[in-house]
Amino acid sequence: MKIRNFVNKLEKFAPKKLAEPGDPVGLQIGNLDAEFTKILVTLDVRPEVVAEAIANHCELIIAHHPVMFHSAHNLDLANPQNQMYAQIIKHNITVYAAHSNLDAADNGMNDWLADKIGLLDTQRLLNGYIDENGHQYGMGRIGNLATKISVLNFAKEIKSIFKLQGLRLVSSNPEKLISRVAVLGGDGGKFYPQALSKGAEIFVTGDVYYHTGHDMLANGLNVVDPGHNIEKICIPKLTALFRTWDIVQTNHIEIVESKVNTNPFTFI
């Protein structure tokens, strides 16, 4: 089967139109008209992940984070990033990224995170693309916990749920009981006003900046920052989704879950 046929199916689930402006989603490297039999699903594309794809004879990498956020200014192979590109091309691997379009998709990244946290009655956090049928998409979710819990204990639950070594908590009252939770995978700190406007008592998002943390405190919003890497939930979720597709089953496409830990941070 051609990679293009698989990508067309993926883009019906997470249309590129849902992506944030300037987000380099879609084909990163390779040839959509190449034939393939094996996919590696990953959060990030790093040299160790490319080596994993090569070892597993995968012709296609489906990633959440684009491999080419920034343009290459040269092809000096002493640069590890350029060397990784060279390995991808040398081994005829095609790399495709579904990033903010997967974040905004129905039953996509933020629904997976909300379900994992145990949110009920979830709604969109942000308003994004509206399709021709008037259906609105958007990143992030907001919903309610089944029972009230203290900010501190909720943070501990997040740490346990996502098997984290540690996380950051922004709160002036860790003993406060909360039940309304907003979640936005990745770097979502700048969207805290939208979380407040929808009644969030606590916001789960990654990569919160120092001064943004001050602003969150001043506005009375509790925040749990579990980091960016919790988005690796996409690996088992996308794998399970792909395996239900007829084109995958009838063409005997094998799906491999990346086992490489791409989290750059270690807590000591």
TrEMBL record:
<feature type="binding site">
    <location>
        <position position="103"/>
    </location>
    <ligand>
        <name>a divalent metal cation 1</name>
    </ligand>
</feature>
<dbReference type="GO" id="GO:0005737">
    <property type="term" value="C:cytoplasm"/>
</dbReference>
<comment type="similarity">
    <text>Belongs to the GTP cyclohydrolase I type 2/NIF3 family.</text>
</comment>
<dbReference type="InterPro" id="IPR002678">
    <property type="entry name" value="DUF34/NIF3"/>
</dbReference>
<keyword id="KW-0479">Metal-binding</keyword>
<feature type="binding site">
    <location>
        <position position="64"/>
    </location>
    <ligand>
        <name>a divalent metal cation 2</name>
    </ligand>
</feature>
<feature type="binding site">
    <location>
        <position position="228"/>
    </location>
    <ligand>
        <name>a divalent metal cation 1</name>
    </ligand>
</feature>
<dbReference type="Pfam" id="PF01784">
    <property type="entry name" value="DUF34_NIF3"/>
</dbReference>
<protein>
    <recommendedName>
        <fullName>GTP cyclohydrolase 1 type 2 homolog</fullName>
    </recommendedName>
</protein>
<feature type="binding site">
    <location>
        <position position="65"/>
    </location>
    <ligand>
        <name>a divalent metal cation 1</name>
    </ligand>
</feature>
<feature type="binding site">
    <location>
        <position position="231"/>
    </location>
    <ligand>
        <name>a divalent metal cation 1</name>
    </ligand>
</feature>
<dbReference type="GO" id="GO:0046872">
    <property type="term" value="F:metal ion binding"/>
</dbReference>
<comment type="subunit">
    <text>Homohexamer.</text>
</comment>
<dbReference type="InterPro" id="IPR036069">
    <property type="entry name" value="DUF34/NIF3_sf"/>
</dbReference>
